[in-house]
């Protein structure tokens, strides 16, 4: 796999022992540490809170604190130049489609970045905004695959 977009919850679950996704999130992080897959984020991304203009960075920095596995992964990726920076701008028809399908503005951003990524894959445990049927429809309509950590781990 060349690149992947990671929804924040997928990383947060690695530190949540109450989450059914914890084991798979930890495995995802470990696989990303061991391979060359890039994590795709929107332009303006920086782990420096005072120096970013990225929606994804804002989400990551809000929910991933030092000491969390997801935060350690981000630091590793940054120091090894393993981020892919791409625009969050999509064609008007795609933007309208995403706005109709996804209520949460932050989740729209992750989907727009995934749309522009090479692999067009978003790892997310968010089944509130990305329900199973909606995931299938999105794949069919705009060719973005939304999977959870367990599914993506097979591809890494």
Supply the key terms.
five-stranded parallel β-sheet, 156 residues, single chain, 8 helices, Rossmann fold, globular, 49% helix, alpha/beta
Descriptive notes:
The chain has 156 residues and is of the alpha/beta class. It has one domain (3-153): Rossmann fold (3-Layer(aba) Sandwich). It contains eight helices and five strands. It has a five-stranded parallel β-sheet, with helices on both faces. Helix 7 links the parallel strand 4 and strand 5. The longest helix is centred in the N-terminal third of the chain and has 13 residues, at 22-34. It is globular and about 40 Å long. 39% of the residues are buried.
Chart the SSEs and their pairings.
Elements: E1 3-6, H1 8-12, H2 22-34, E2 38-42, H3 55-63, H4 69-79, E3 83-86, H5 92-101, H6 105-116, E4 121-123, H7 132-142, E5 145-147, H8 149-153
Parallel strand pairs: 1-2, 1-4, 2-3, 4-5
Low-confidence stretches: none
- Assess the beta-strand content as a share of residues: 5-15%
- Principal-axis shape equals globular
CATH class: Alpha Beta
Order of helices and strands: EHHEHHEHHEHEH
Mean pLDDT: 94
Total count of domains:
1
SS summary, helix count = 8
């Amino acid at each position: 796999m060349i690149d992947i977009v990671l929804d924040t919850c997928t990383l947060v679950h690695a530190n949540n022992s109450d989450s059914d996704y914890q084991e798979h999130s930890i495995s995802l992080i470990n696989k990303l540490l061991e391979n060359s897959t890039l994590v795709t984020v929107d332009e303006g991304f920086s782990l420096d809170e005072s120096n970013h203009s990225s929606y994804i960075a804002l989400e990551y920095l809000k929910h991933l604190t030092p000491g969390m596995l997801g935060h350690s992964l981000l630091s590793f990726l940054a120091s090894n130049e393993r981020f892919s920076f791409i625009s969050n701008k999509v064609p008007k028809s795609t933007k309208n489609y995403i706005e109709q399908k996804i209520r949460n503005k932050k989740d729209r951003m992750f989907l727009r970045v995934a749309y522009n990524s090479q692999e067009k894959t978003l790892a997310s445990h968010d089944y509130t905004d990305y329900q199973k049927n909606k995931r299938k429809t999105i794949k069919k309509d705009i060719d973005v695959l939304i999977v959870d950590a367990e599914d993506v781990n097979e591809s890494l």
